[in-house]
Predict the 3D structure of the following.
Amino acid sequence: MNIAHVSRDVQVPPTPANSGFRTECTKPSSDDFFGVSFDDTAENNLLSHVLLEVSFVIVVTRVLRFLLKPLRQPRIVSEILGGVLVGPSVLGHNRKFAEYAFPDSANFVVRNVGAMGFMYFLFMAGVRTDMAMVWRSAKKHVYIALTGFFVPWFVVIGIGLFMRRSMSDAYGDWLSIGVLGSSTAITAFPVLYPILKELNILNSEVGRLALSSAIVVDMLGIVAIVILEATVQVESGSNDGLWCLAAVLLTVAIMYVGTRAAVSRIIRNTPEGKPVDQTYIVAILVGVLVTGFVTDFLGVAIGNGPLWLGLMIPDGPPLGTTLVERSDTIIMELLMPFSFMFIGQSTDLAAMGKAWSDLKPICAIVAIGHFTKVVTCLLSGLFIHMPVADGLALGLILTLRGQVDLLLFVHWLQKKVIQPQVYTMMVMLSVLVTAVSTPLIGILYDPTKPYMVNRRRTIQHTPPSTELGVVLKIHDEEDTAKFINFIEASNPTVSSPISIYGLHLVEIVGRGYPRLLDHEKLAQYSTYAIYETIHQAMKVYQESKSECISYKAYTAMSPKRTMFRDICELALINKATLILLPYHKNLPQNHHRIVLVSAVLANAPCSVGILLDKGHFRSNSMLAVNPTDFQAQFHQLVLLFLGGADGREALYYADRMVGNQNVRLTVVRFLAYDGEGDDEMEKKLDDGAVTWFWMKNEMNRRVNYREVEVRNGEETVATVHAMNDNTFDLWIVGRKHGINPVLLRGLEDWSENSELGVMGDYVSSLYCDAAASVLVVQQQVLREQKHWLRRMGVGVM
């Protein structure tokens, strides 16, 4: 991962021999750099031209992103194409336009700032990379990484040597073939991370596998590139190859000792839960430039130092997170446009077209290399029992090209290992491979596919006297208190215990690899549990009820948009029956939580409960976790049974809760007048569930049951209002599936929170004026495998 030296050659015209020494003095203008000058030459308007170039490439890139978004193209494609468009290949091909808009003096500034942009990009990529993943990677990850690296590399080298005689001398030397092999084999973690994040598969099964494999490949790639660079120096006739290797080892050792000591001190001086002081951040960012200078001075390419520095800084809070939060936007949105202009200025499609007859063999070799990589990853995936579609998607992911590959191309170009025409071809092939692979990945891989289980995981279908698995999404201490209270009211017993899987979600900032952490397997618990008191309170409660309650704590680190997958994955792994989510209504800052709830409802592999607590399940006594306190609390529940699968699931959960001697339950069944709008099948299922419930609880004095006939939603609401005497602690309702539309006629347009369903939204609203908490239940929805490959039988295991 290197970047070439960027320098400016200043040529001084020779002085005529018969004129002696001639000196021409020009009065410098202090305002020339800022573009305020009566001289219209480009050199006197340097800043104006630089601003014009950068503004132009940003606008072009944004327009391309807008146009290519419907085609599922990632950001990197539009950025590279934007740089190429303003370079000599398209707009810069017009000499007059290039001299006026993109003069050499402005291009000099753009190239150097672009080099700095690449330095900071590599640094931030290093900060996000968790080096420990190399040692923690599972065997299958290492297996895919090694086969995906070495097989394409050997294939490209072998074919290149075989076709060497048919290639021109300028393109067919063995170093150029070695560069082709390494560039095809390497899969860069900094390239995959942003693309997978755009595709929303960063924390999916295949996404994690690809990132883990890429980290292993990156370590191999760093070693291979350093060795290749030393070989290039030996090939050039100098004896600096060993000096290059020695300089690398010495620099890394010094940086490791110094950086680790400084980082440890910074972390010690940072209060827990607080960001790192700005002074330290500035010092580290200056250190990026210093390390770039040192490695360049020692003969190692300028981009290596920032990368190594980033790798030595621990990812995540406090230091890694603060660095990313305060620097990422400036680097990606301000400095990187210079970098892509730098790439575009070195790209010349016209020159490549003229040499196309000589470039065909090289193009064929690269294409074969990428195809080999896809096939190798597919076969490796089949070996570890991956479906065909997933293995093919994994192969396409590992062929994605981006910023790191461009850096390598520039480096080898300026080292004269490859020719400018080969450089241009490699840049355009990188764009083509990424542009083709990205939409195919979206078509082939469905990250929600694992949650499409065909086995019932519902409360209704859970046999009596069996364990009930519940996943709790815990956000803060208030959630802890109400969940403890609610679980206690759910009647855990020795014969029917409850297994609780507490999950705390953390947005992944300053890290590049999403993780699902089991706290029982962590050596240092507090390192990852930001809300340690939450899990400790749940643990104390579990210990007081150890005969009927078990508890396991988890923390998931992932992007906000895909956090729902961690919840679904945890439920899937532990074969949970219910996912219980807290809900905070009418709070703008909780928009993300509402989106999260909707995503879980759409993808959950089991039933889902949404608990909107208004204080009845939130008690300070819960934090004391005294079993006698639980027995002293009395709960009055009411179930609004409107029928359907969700209503039946709510009925079965209410039946479980009424087993608690301190719970009273009122069940109100709503029926349509004269059976209007009834679905015969749903009606029969509802009748069967209600009959079972009443026969079981007919002699239970703590259970009341009645039926009400209504003609529309207005009468349904009127019935609820008549019941609302503020004596209830909890309303229980089914969400929506299978409800007779007549019962809610006229209310659908009024509902604002679809995730709660019409009735759940109403009883939790201010219009209902109900002080009770609300539990909305959705029964597991069995989904068909809709993937087109699976419909044809491909990838079915």
Summary: The chain has three domains: 33-444, 468-613, 634-783. Confidence is low (pLDDT under 50) at residues 1-39, 525-530, 619-632, 785-797. The longest strand covers residues 498-507.
